[in-house]
Amino acid sequence: MLRKAVIVASVFYLASCGVVYQGVQSGITSMNESQVIRQGRYGELTEQELEWAEIAWTYVENNTDLTTGLVNSLDNFPTTNLSNLADYLIALMAAREFEFITSKEHDERLTLVLSFLNEMPLGLTGVPNKVYSTGTGMMVDYGNQPGEVGWSSIDIGRLLIVLAMTKQRNPEFSEYVDKAVLRWNFCELVTEDGELYGGVVNNGQVQRFKEGRLGIEEYTSYGYLDWQIVPEKAMMLDPYEVVTINGIDLLFDGRDPRHYDVLRPVYSTPYLLLGLEFNWDNIADTQSNDSQHSNEVLAAMADSIYRIQESRWEVDRIYTARGEHIVTGEPYFVYDSIYALGTPWITVAEDGSDHDEKALVSTRVAFQMWALWKTDYTKRLMTLVRELYDPERGWYEGRYELTSSYEKSISLQTNAGVLEALMYKANGKLYQPRGDKEYRDVQFDSRFYHPGRCLVETFR
Questions:
Q1: How many CB atoms are closer than 10 A to CB 75?
Q2: Where's the DUF3131 domain (predicted)?
């Protein structure tokens, strides 16, 4: 059942799965031991690292619409989604910290984003649309034509995490963040039994579906937990299965594709974000220790994700840094999987077709693994990707595994991902819970204005 929880008392549900996980995966002990010696890269950025960050910020400067204050998800294509809005906010945090912009410019940019969130049109069900025009701020389809296409609880969960981080760094803006989120109908995002649901809107008809897969569900659940909503089923590991690659055990989503219309690739992104933003800790954990993680299960899963990719270099001499990314030409977007469709190292599109020739050494994933694991392998990865940029446009998506050639598509996700990795190096984990009373707390406690379980009331 969907329920509220006091954040300071919340214990991430996965921690209770440790016994089950340990029973199935015999390698859990060795995995946890490897976490004890895991060390990330920390410290003030070098001159070269600041140059890397400035290249990434160049993308944002080039792709900001000065009227709406929104940033294009793809270079020179004027749309965005809520996950990419989160990417922009991450980039904005980094730009302010690294002094690429003044305090006044930061205030202006953040104000435009929060104004958009408080005024943007919502869909038929009272939740944000998947896609918005960066030029008008209106709902559009994937071709940037006016219309409503549906919603993503995964994208919204990612945005909730980054909005929390924005409030932590800018408490003077907390009220405006809360007012924006209080507009949304959370009953369409999280079901009563705690599952994340997305939806498709076609000719005014709404079709709802369970959204997410192992890894991304656990990550985006943190965003709902920050709002004292506990998506219990989304946080459970079950159902899962185990595959062994190069002697290392890996968990993957166990839902039968014959009964669930869900693509189940295992890739790096959610586990890297859990490390960068939460140190693989429970959400209420105020400590950050490089070798200790209050959510040991997620830490062990992330360690497997890293070590399997490192082992591919050691065994097969293939550099590997796998995430989801755009490509030039069809199918335009792919998942470079560590494991999918019963096969290691397969690249799949959303429709399940395979495109192994599109596999990249991802610039973003390489930067983030380099920040989280201080190893000889990640140093080698950075040597491979550190020249993959256009100084006037930003960082490319990556280098093709098969040919070494550049994938010269440029995206907000990749450039913000570079900035997030460098901000982690300078600060450690990026989410820092606070106990200060907030605008939303007043609304929850008010006998007159309590927004209720679905948070659908609008407060002005």
A1: 18
A2: 51-428
pLDDT tens per residue across span 374-386: 999 999 999 999 9
Q: How many CB atoms lie within 10 A of CB 171?
A: 12
Q: What Rg, from alpha-carbon coordinates, does the chain have?
A: 21
The whole-angstrom separation of Cα 225 and Cα 268 is 22
Relative to beta strand 339-340, strand 333-336 is: unpaired
> How many angstroms separate the first and last alpha carbons of the chain?
30
Residues 6+ apart with CB under 8 A from 373: 38, 39, 40, 306
Nearest 5°: CA angle at 95, between 271 and 280? 20
Does the pTM exceed 0.85?
yes
Of the two residues 267 and 236, the one the predictor is more confident about is 267
Residue 87 to residues 41, 46, 200, 412, Cα–Cα distance (Å): 22, 23, 23, 7
Query: Contact 134/87 with Cβ under 8 angstroms?
Result: no
CA–CA separation, 172 and 98 (whole Å): 20
Write the CB contacts of 162 (distance below 8 Å, at least 6 apart in sequence): 86, 89, 90
For residue 366, give the nearest of 406, 408, 320 by alpha carbon: 320
338: tokens are 């560590």
C-alpha 60/C-alpha 260 separation (Å) is 38
The residues spanned by each domain of the chain are 7-430
pLDDT tens sequence across 267-281: 999 999 999 999 999
CA dihedral 376, 378, 379, 381 (to 10 degrees): 130
Tokens found for residue 384: 């491979």
What's the CA gap between 68 and 21, in Å, rounded? 47
pLDDT of 12 strictly over 80: no
State the Cα–Cα distance between residues 149 and 169, nearest whole angstrom: 33
Q: Tell me: pLDDT of 111 over 90.
A: yes
Mean pLDDT of the chain: 88
Q: Which long-range contacts (CB under 8 A, 24 or more apart) does 27-35 make?
A: 27/248, 27/249, 27/304, 28/300, 31/249, 31/300, 31/303, 31/304, 31/307, 32/296, 32/299, 32/300, 34/303, 34/307, 35/291, 35/293, 35/296, 35/299, 35/300, 35/303
- Spatial distance between the Cα atoms of 72 and 81, rounded to a whole number of angstroms: 9
User: Number of helices (H) and strands (E), helices first, in the chain?
Assistant: 15, 17
